Structure formats: structure tokens, C-alpha cells
Amino acid sequence: MVLVGYFSAKQKDFGTLMASAATELEARGARVVAQVVQRRGVSDGGVRRMGLPYSARTLLSHGKVREVAQVCEQADADAVIFVAPLTERQQRTLTALLGRPAAGLSDVLATP
């Protein structure tokens, strides 16, 4: 699976959060084959909109969705797990765009 993080530029420990999420998934038997991070608020324009997702449909920017899709194809990933929670609409949209199931980490960890 591919692990995707969406973090504010103010979140300095995003690497630790990604590593922790990967460890939790691997403890449940998953194999994380790649990680992709979208940072928000790095530019002046991004700082003003930092609390909002890039896209209400996908959470990420369009370019980052394309990057995640490419990474999934190259790694032959069977799923995409987002560190941030996803709405049902985002799950459906991302599943369709990425061609494999997309889910939030909290949903995956809540499943026994």
C-alpha cells in the first residue's frame, strides 16, 4: 500500500507522524511500499488557506493526486491509506481516480 500524508508547513514532525503511521500499518500486516507527502502553507498564499484542503473532493492538489496515482502504478500498490481522515465522498473520488481503494488511517485502524 501507499501511505499519503497531508500536513501543514507548521507541522515540523510530519516525518515522525508518517513513520508512526507506517509502523502501525505494518503491525497489522500491511506492507507500505511508498510514502507521499503533501505540505500546505509553505508559500505565502498557502499560509492563508492552511486549514483548508487543497480540494474538497480529493484533499490533495490535482498534481499530487497524479503523483500518488503514478507511485501506485509503479509500486503495484493494492490500496492507498491517508494519514488524514477522509470523508465518504473523498474516499469514493480517490478510489476512482487512483484505481484502488483509498481510506483514512483512522478507518483502517478502527477495523478489527
Query: So what's the CATH class?
Result: Alpha Beta
CATH superfamily: GTPase HflX, N-terminal domain
Principal-axes geometry comes out as globular
Low-confidence stretches: none
Order of helices and strands: EHEHHEHEH
CATH architecture: 3-Layer(aba) Sandwich
Proportion of residues in helical segments: 40-55%
How many domains, as an integer? Answer: 1
Count the E strands.
4
Describe the strand arrangement of the main beta sheet, using strand numbers. Answer: 2-1-3-4
Largest sheet: 4 strands, parallel
- Our measurement of the CA-to-CA distance between the termini, rounded to an integer number of angstroms, reads 18 Å
User: How many DSSP H or I helices?
Assistant: 5
Question: Please, could you describe this protein's structure?
Answer:
The protein is of the alpha/beta class and 112 residues long. It has one domain: Rossmann fold. The chain has 5 helices and 4 strands. A 4-stranded parallel beta sheet has the order 2-1-3-4, sandwiched between helices. The longest helix has 14 residues, at 14-27. The radius of gyration is 13 Å and the shape is globular. The model has no long low-confidence stretch (mean pLDDT 87).
